[in-house]
């Protein structure tokens, strides 16, 4: 397998699009429940935790981009093989594919659950998940160009929801925020840790990087994307803290969706129905990118057509949807994936970057050594 | 084993026709089985024989009599040989041929074959008569403002109009033939130095590669050369307005004219260019911008309104504020159907009216509109078939879909409404959103002559948005649209346009 991936000229997209990609993949089902999970850890300083998490993500992104820059045009699959050799590298690749498949699955199941809770309590899980999976397959079949397009339209089509979220502020009580920095560092870090599931998605950069046209600009736009995400998350958390009373926020599973209830237009009430529907456009790029990146592994590792990978993962995810029946299982699965994500997206890439730096440094030294002697 | 079956028959080797007049006649008669349409006129002079072979339905008989036959009769002292006859014919297009297939093709195109017995070859003289209607106002793309002349069915005439619009030395019109059997003439039109070479090549290649017996018109040609034939959305635009073509050519597009077709096909055309009207160009920019936005919003609501009604009334009535819900409930109280049925029924009626109106002559068509709009609408509500509010919504969305300047795109928009209504009836807001996501992905996948379909929105070309999505004041449009990858990028000097006459002068 080649380490570097050189896609056709027509498949490349502008670095500018990376901002949309990172933003759209990060914003997903996690956001709906984000304020509560952070609040449980960091109490009314939760918004600081979220912001902190954003900063951590941006540091991790620096590591990732620097690691990718060591190569000409490689993705994580290639880097693994380059660093660890064929067998160990491929095993890691397969692990990563499994991680991405399970993230794909969790996003899907969480959205189906939201729909069932908020709109159609009797809707069978398999129906909606089947249709959503087919939709995502249709998009992924179009290749990276279409998937990036979905990310773009997702951001453009749902950014107005970020404005709507400020509406509940008029009913807010800002005293909820004080005293600021009441939580200790450990609580803040625990809060930041609990944002993992929402923040996940930025690791996709390690797979789309070969398709970026102006690679030197990648860092800037990736950081921009993350910045927007962090701001949206921080404000959503802040507004939730201001809006909800302490004990009611702890009991509201999807505070962001609950807040939409308050939005009222002359001809529309109960805005959350629209918000939940629109949430589909928000999660669509997440699912597309995870499916695309995971199935890309098939063509990279097994040298089969990517279509095979798409179908295998899709069928696995669809089959998996039959095993989750209760809220309890759902919670366990989500926590598991969040934990996986913490290691796979936060810790591991930093570690790998270190290894890559050392290896490159060693190689450079060696070649210099060879020249002088 | 069956190789001989799949193998093509050996091409007939061209052969010279018979030198004997009677045999020539027989040969032509067997080749062109057209009965009395094929006319022979033989002249004799001192044992010499001269024959005129022609297709009476294709030729202009006055031209034949006045020019060809008269000039031969008047010049009595000339020899009846090919050269000398050619000398006396006061015509431009004369060709000397002797192959039977060339003669047959010539006669078929409306030429007269003049042959003196015993000569090695004869003359084909063009006396073709084309049936052509006069220039008329554009019908399908009617305009309030701007030039109204429209193309006709004659390729010659259409080229004439275009040529008069564009007196550019770089204006190119390549000859193409479409249809293996019908051999319809076509022209590939572009402006050299502006149009992208790759786009031209794609067009040329796709038209040339067509292996069809007959193509009825440019709209059909468009369907054959576009990339995705399964899609409901048209990917190439046809228009009957010559000025639209001129504008497009100067933006770097490529056009195809087909003989006997009153529309011109051009591309690459993105999704949003189907919502452009030439009026936007002729009007002041702010008016144009307003109208274009109006059209886009109308289209959006045309697709969304009815499904939203169905979704809200079937599943999410909480969304409606209580005062509005009361009046809605009141008007729907007598309706026995679920909202999906009601909406589909009424949409069906509207489509019926539109179709019936289009098929009937104008005078009866107007009556149809009145009967449909007032009588059926009113009666349907009174009979308790539908609610008043749905009638308003359906009428609005029908109006919205008719604002699209391109008839094909308008039809596409009306058609995609039906699956969305069905999904709205099935899954409410989720169903509508599913359809929207599907259409976004679908539009992302489409392409028009190799270019992206959703440009300039995706891939985003901020500069081009002033061309096809919004409309900017003319001094800001000093460049040609980037998406067309034009060779000559600048239309006029940007600097000059920005010069202002103000106090600093």
TrEMBL record, chain A:
Organism per entry: Neobacillus niacini
Organism classification, top ranks?
Bacteria, Bacillati, Bacillota, Bacilli, Bacillales
> What GO cellular component entries does it have?
membrane
Listed Pfam families: Spore_permease
Which subcellular locations apply to this protein? Membrane
Keywords (alphabetical) are: Germination, Membrane, Transmembrane, Transmembrane helix, Transport
UniProt xrefs under PANTHER family:
SPORE GERMINATION PROTEIN A2 (PTHR34975:SF2)
Per the record, the major location class is membrane
* Entry's Gene Ontology BP terms: spore germination
Question: Out of the domains of life, which is the source?
Answer: Bacteria
The molecule here is called Spore germination protein (Amino acid permease)
Q: How does it sit in the membrane?
A: Multi-pass membrane protein
Q: Which family does it belong to?
A: Belongs to the amino acid-polyamine-organocation (APC) superfamily. Spore germination protein (SGP) (TC 2.A.3.9) family.
Which InterPro entries does its entry note?
Spore_GerAB (IPR004761)
Where are the membrane-spanning stretches? 12-34, 46-65, 94-112, 118-141, 148-171, 191-212, 224-245, 273-293, 308-328, 340-358
From TrEMBL, chain B:
In its UniProt record, which GO terms are filed under biological process? spore germination
Keyword Transport among record annotations: no
Principal place of residence: membrane
Name the Pfam families for this protein: GerA (PF03323)
- Identify the keywords attached in UniProt to this record, alphabetized: Membrane, Transmembrane, Transmembrane helix
- Residue ranges spanning the membrane: these are 293-315, 387-408, 420-441
Cell compartments where the protein resides: Cell membrane; Membrane
What's its membrane topology?
Multi-pass membrane protein
The UniProt record lists the keyword Transmembrane: yes
GO cellular component annotations of the record: plasma membrane
Q: Which family does it belong to?
A: Belongs to the GerABKA family.
Name the UniProt record assigns to this protein: Spore germination protein
Q: Which organism was this protein described from?
A: Neobacillus niacini
